[in-house]
Amino acid sequence: MQPAERRIWRWIVLATAYFAALTAWVQSHALLGFDYHTTVWLNAHGNRLMDWVMSVITDTSTPELSMVLCAALVVFLWRQFGWRPAVCLFAAFVGGTLLEVVLKNYITQPGTHGMINRYVFGPGWIHISLPYAYPSGHAFRAFLLIGAIALWVMPRASAFWWTLAVLAGASRLYLGHHWTTDVLGGAALAAALLMVIGTQIKPRAMAAG
Asked: What is the pLDDT of residues 59-84, one digit of tens each?
């Protein structure tokens, strides 16, 4: 294993450990006060225009659009870098989504329960009601898929795409759909999986693309 590969695997271990530690901390209910106060503070600075902007941004990571974007990214990675990163992205998307569903059944993080709801659109085509809130699926999909665009599709515009991913996560807080720890958990899971996908994209392949 090359030194660069060892470094990235160390980062993968650190991101995974962070996600596991945050999950345990959320399960202990030690961060409920932090979550409540950050959500209330963010919503205290809201207005109708921002409601519309954040509602549009949050819809970039709906399950419907995410499935289409994931399929497009799988095709792109396969054509540019070979089958390994393409399969890894698909497995990360499906596996991460399944893990989200499992955790939302067992990590007893209460949701916002409509305490604040600034979302201006109606429910999407795919809506699954789960008992708990951790981690945020929207944040996971935003950081995984938009992050993939930033890293491998349009790296020259990476600042724009990473900003969009961050705003998609922040929109979940602003709209009152998730707590801060939910979003951090989804982002951490996506970060670990993105780095795993990155191990399958070799410098030679990137240069050829």
From this structure: 999 999 999 999 999 999 999 999 99
**Residue 127 domain-assigned?**
no
Residue 2 DSSP one-character state: -
Which structural domain, as residue segments, surrounds residue 176? Answer: 3-118+132-208
How many structural domains does the chain have? 1
Q: What is the CA radius of gyration of the chain?
A: 17
- Give the distance from CA 124 to its chain's centroid: 18
What span, in angstroms and rounded, lies between the C-alpha atoms of 59 and 64? 9
pLDDT score for 205: 44
Q: What share of the chain is helix, strand, coil (3-state, %, to 5)?
A: 75, 0, 25
Which H/E stretch holds residue 102? Answer: helix 83-106
What pTM value is reported for the model? 0.91
CA-to-CA dists, residue 145 to 29, 85, 88, 149, angstroms: 30, 13, 12, 6
Question: Using one digit for the tens of pLDDT, what is the confidence trace for 94-108?
Answer: 999 999 999 999 999
- Is residue 55 within 8 A of residue 121, CB to CB? The reply is yes
- Asked if the peptide bond before residue 135 counts as cis, ω within 30 degrees of 0, the response is yes
